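Q: I have two molecules that I believe assemble together. Could you output structure tokens for the complex as a whole instead of separate predictions?
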Amino acid sequence: MRAIKKYWPIFLIPTMAAFAIGFVIPFILGIYLSFTKFTAVTDAKWVGLKNYATALKDPTFVHSFLFTAAFAAVTLILINVIAFALAMALTKKRRGTNVFRTIFFMPNLIGGIVLGYIWQLIFSGILSRFHTALNLNSRLGFWGLVILVCWQQIGYMMIIYIAGFQSIPTDVLEAAEIDGANARQTLFKVTIPMMMPSITICTFLTITNGFKLFDQNLALTAGAPMKKTEMLALNIYNTFYGRSGFEGVGQAKAVIFFVLVVAIAALQQKLTRTKEVQQ
Amino acid sequence: MDKKGKWYGTTFLTFLCIFWIFPVLCVLWNSFKDKTSINLKPFELPAGRTFVGWENYAQAIDKYGLLKSVGWTVFITVFSVAAILICCSMCGWFITRVRTKWTKFIYALCIFSMVVPFQMVMFTLSLVTNRLHLTTPWGLIVVYLGFGAGLAVFMFTGFVRSIPIEIEEAALIDGCTPVQTFFKVVLPIMKPTYISVGILETMWIWNDFLLPYLVLDIKKYKTISIIIQYMKGSYGSVDMGAIMAALILAVIPVVVFYLSCQKYIIKGVAAGAVKG
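A: Yes, here they are, computed for all two components at once.
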């Protein structure tokens, strides 16, 4: 394959040039600017760790972290349990499974902004009967976001779990039946261990999606009331574009956010990968 | 499971499905309602005085230029996905077949970029694109190619590893240049991966809000997500009727796309996840 090697400009340059503009340069610049005070790149002044200190002392940032962590934990459990149950129900012989799958998956294709406004209509219709609204009560805002994200992502995770169920060899399940295992034993001792690869993927996706959530948050509550439903991504956005002079702090928050997401993803992978069994 | 249990299950699933599509249907009938009655009574069907026909759609199209932004969204999605598919499949094939420390580095970088949240690069990305004058839909295609490269290269390399190298070697020995080999031999074999990657990237770009919002010159170009956010966030009275119409116009292409290539979408999602 030596002959290919000298053709590298044709194969690599288009992607790599765009990759540099869209990712590599902004990423490196972002790390650098998090240690400076700036409004444009040319006036950046080195300030060391000051931006990080300001970011960590910002009560809205800490609150948004706690809010996001709670949100990610709740959606992680709800989405995975419901999607797993649905996948189990829809891999049994039953009439209309294809129609059910189609409908459950559909919300996933709708964009976050559109989803946010669709649900805003529904929630305001329900809550106005109780003389309240999503943007008046942060607890309602939290659960509103949870319902929206569950509605959006359950179908997606369901599809992954269905693929997982279909790849379990039937002889293992038959062996469990012959050995006299009841339904619960089969589920916890055979099915779930065999499903660990799918569970790893789905928990990874739900937890990172939970932490990165932005569009839905902006459209549904926009942080109201009083920034109490502001999640990490929206908090960073508001730091950048909400007030001038805080760009460096915003960038420092973004770096913290990045490290956090990578750490959580790595930890999650470690926890679930070890539980996977060889087939 | 006995027959009765199955029947209960199916009934329960049916109710759940109705609940699942209810929000979209609710927006649909509200898009035909008088704008003052939308917020007050969203669950009532349009009837009598509250029914306004296509007026909301006409408002959204005339006043906010909705069709134009649908057009831009289609333009950006189609060309970005095409660019990603062609460039990233070439890159993915090359870095799998030519193993040097550089190609390994590129592969590692692509994986790394998939984990990085957008907020990490959003501000600096808008600085870079402003400086390079990439604030048009054409420029946005370059940005999408760069930002979507991680997932696409990763999926293509995964597939190239599974195809036997002998076919390509035979083509090279028979006198094909590497470029010919790629387009005549490798590309046809990779068709399933093109479909999976194409679907994943289409779903992402069509619905994306923040990236185009920060990169594009908003005064001239708006995508659907941007225009909906703009209609809701603009000062003065919010035209709920026009928003309902815009939401429906944003959802319809997605639903049509989904129903017409549902088989591939579901396969693409499953494939993307297994490799991710």
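A: One point stands out. Chain A touches chain B through 90 residues (CB under 8 Å).
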